[in-house]
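Allow me, if you will, to draw on your knowledge of protein folds for a short while. Thank you for your consideration; the sequence and its tokens are set out here:
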Amino acid sequence: MIRSFLLGLTPGKSRARRITKKAALLAASASFTIGLSLPVHSEGFKSEDIDGFINELVRDEGFSRPALEKMFKEVEFKPRIVELISRPAERRLTWWEYRNLFINDLRIDQGVEFWKKNKGILDQASKTYGVSQSVIIGILGIETGFGRNSGGFRVVDALSTLGFGYPRRATFFRKELKEFLVLSREQGFDPLSLTGSYAGAMGIPQFMPSSYRAYAIDFDKDGQADIWKSPADAVGSIASYLNRHGWIEGKPVASRAHVQGQKYSALLSDNPRPTRSVNEARNLGWKSQQVLPDSARVRGLKLDGKNGVEHWLTMTNFYVITRYNKSDLYAMAVYQLGRQVEQKMQANQSISKDQPASKDQPASKEQSQTLVQTDT
């Protein structure tokens, strides 16, 4: 009887009736003593969900049942997480509202500071993986403000809450919870100590557990891919991710465009993968503000800007950014923030060259205004 409790088994009713009163008392006493009579989950979760998940991990991944039961007693259901994931900024804001939320003078200055401090790392990552430094900067800025805000929820709480309390995407988040626990075992992490976003994204680059296991790299060669504390590992891991999702070195991301005629809407698509040539786009009434080769693959995008509708031609590298976060608003914000940080870096370098005795002099008001304008 005691052994069956240790294995997570419950005897059938008929067998239970045959157990003598004395044996039952002894078994109950022993079970209470070793703590196995307590529930294996905290309030807010269904017993059958947690028990079934534990069974799966023990069977498929060789986990220790007592260790998992002990852990799940500490996991907390967070209703606030369900509220947050039900109203993401990408779904409730227009482009201009979204842009103002993430792109401003402060974040641009923070990006310049990060770039200067980690220039060698960014140079090396770009050279190794062929990925634009400005896009890496853009991702770091949008995701966590260059590491300043990587999330305050325990990852195990977030993934458990969504895996067992958010039916719409429960399958995905249970898979990520499994990946997280395997990852914690592989890396020697305490699964109860790691923090991240309300969706369970982790560290400076906000990798989901499956992405960490597939793409995170130890770029500073210290023996562990530490995306929580190592800017080098964060930068290298982002570059690795984009490279493996098809980034094309030296190619553009997007170009503002003008449209005319009645056929231009045929190029608009909710699918970010570009499938039409620039020549086709031109024949449909699109004129790029940036010179693009006729053979380049493009897709039309319409966004609600500050002064009305904006039309953009997006290319393969834009699509690759959406593989990081499947949102046009996100990808455009990454692109524009990275560009503006890069422009301010170049402006600062130009000022330093022209005025070597005044290296701390800020850009002029006119220069600053130019740098924060939307691409035209």
Observations:
- Strands lie at 153-154, 195-196, 254-259, 276-277, 286-288, 297-305, 308-314.
- The longest helix spans residues 328-354.
- The first strand starts at residue 153 and ends at 154.
- Residues 266 and 284 are 7 Å apart (CA to CA).
